[in-house]
Structure to design on (208 residues):
């Protein structure tokens, strides 16, 4: 099962990626009430209970790897739920080719968009996928109207390979050649990998 990242923190300059835990669900659930986010992520609103079930499946399924994106400027220091800006996911759903990862990024906090948070979170996740999960090909499926996201993936060397008018989405792809791998590791050479258990504030410390 995809427990591989349950104690992993990936710390960048702008964002820090932490495992998605039950403590993050209420804030996540709040985000997903937004019609705009539902449209951009092609998802249905869930009840809080369903969102908790979803979080457990994210944690336990072998074909998903997910991190919550925190603002590095706020965490550690502030409570995680106050530092959350979005999430980033890898789906390993291609049974014929386990080296393909479909990547998905959501910066849910409007004040954090357009500040490079999504780009860094995506790069950190890609580097993790390449180093830890054996990914050699990335795909991203993005709604046609989401120009900011399409543009960002193109800056990260993804190429448009398909367009579905039925789903109104564009598929972009990146094959990680040696050269691309080198570039990716250079882009993320500031990333620090840490233990989540060690960085988390003990309960109660923030309340005193």
């Amino acid at each position: 099962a995809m427990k591989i990242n349950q104690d992993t923190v990936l710390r960048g300059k702008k964002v820090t990626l932490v495992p998605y835990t039950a403590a993050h669900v209420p804030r996540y659930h709040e985000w997903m009430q937004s019609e705009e986010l539902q449209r951009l992520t092609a998802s249905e609103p869930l009840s809080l209970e369903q969102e908790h079930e979803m979080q457990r499946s994210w944690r336990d399924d072998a074909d998903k790897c997910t991190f919550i994106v925190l603002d590095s400027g706020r965490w550690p220091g502030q409570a995680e739920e106050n530092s959350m800006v979005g999430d980033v996911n890898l789906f390993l759903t291609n049974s014929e080719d386990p080296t393909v990862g479909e990547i998905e990024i959501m910066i849910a906090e409007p004040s954090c968009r357009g500040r490079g948070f999504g780009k860094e979170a995506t790069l950190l996740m890609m580097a993790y996928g390449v180093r830890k999960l054996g990914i050699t090909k990335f795909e991203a499926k993005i709604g046609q109207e989401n120009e900011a996201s399409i543009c960002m993936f193109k800056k990260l060397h993804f190429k448009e390979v398909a367009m579905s008018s039925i789903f109104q989405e564009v598929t972009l792809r990146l094959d990680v050649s040696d050269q691309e791998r080198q570039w990716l590791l250079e882009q993320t050479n500031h990333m620090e990998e840490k233990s989540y258990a060690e960085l988390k504030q003990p309960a109660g410390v923030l309340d005193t």
